[in-house]
Design a protein that fits this description.
Helix content is 51%, strand content 10%. By secondary structure, it is mainly α.
Length: 192
């Protein structure tokens, strides 16, 4: 899938918010690897949905071996950046890809709650390794775990028999026991 196909999924405001989130995280966390960034983007949405019923970035995460992963962001970080090229650049050291900010953080698309959430995630998860973050996102009863289990791919992913699936992580699991947040989440998803 070409960059232009990914680009059509996001409007300018969404691209700015995703790109500036990458700038913010990469300015605050030393040696931010590609895998760690992908996990932190997921954790931001997970915690935001738990807190308010609304995702901060509204990314679609797929159930991959090292997932949950936003496939289009993964491709953007793995190859030559296209639709987010104004926000980051990468350096390769051995087998690792590190993400560095390409510009200054612009908070136009962010509420104070968004900024507080990003600081919370940096404080709670910023010093964790990518492997730690994978364990966190794969914990029992997490949306990734439940989606993999529901679609009968959990053991295949855990045993590394497959690397990825097209199953989208069901984030509604995060608010299913809170009727108000569940309604907010469903309404948000219908509108976006």
């Amino acid at each position: 899938m070409g960059a232009s196909e990914f680009y059509t999924r996001y409007n300018d405001d969404q691209l700015s918010k995703i790109g500036n989130t990458i700038i913010y995280l990469s300015k605050k966390i030393d040696k931010l690897s590609k895998t760690k960034l992908l996990k932190l983007l997921y954790i931001l949405d997970e915690i935001s949905i738990k807190k308010s019923g609304i995702p901060i970035l509204n990314l679609k995460f797929k159930t991959w071996k090292f997932g949950p992963v936003s496939e289009d962001i993964f491709v953007e970080l793995s190859s030559e950046p296209s639709f987010l090229k104004d926000y980051f650049y990468k350096i390769i050291e051995g087998d690792n890809i590190y993400i560095l900010p390409n510009g200054e953080f612009n908070d136009d698309e962010f509420s104070q709650n968004d900024l507080d959430l990003m600081d919370f995630v940096i404080n709670e998860f910023g010093n964790k390794t990518a492997k730690d973050l994978i364990s966190y996102t794969h914990r029992e009863n997490s949306p990734w775990h439940n989606t993999a289990k529901k679609n009968s791919v959990l053991e295949l992913l855990q045993n590394e028999q497959i690397n990825n699936t097209e199953f989208v992580v069901d984030m509604s699991d995060l608010v299913k026991y809170d009727d108000r947040k569940a309604a907010i989440y469903q309404e948000y998803k219908m509108l976006h």
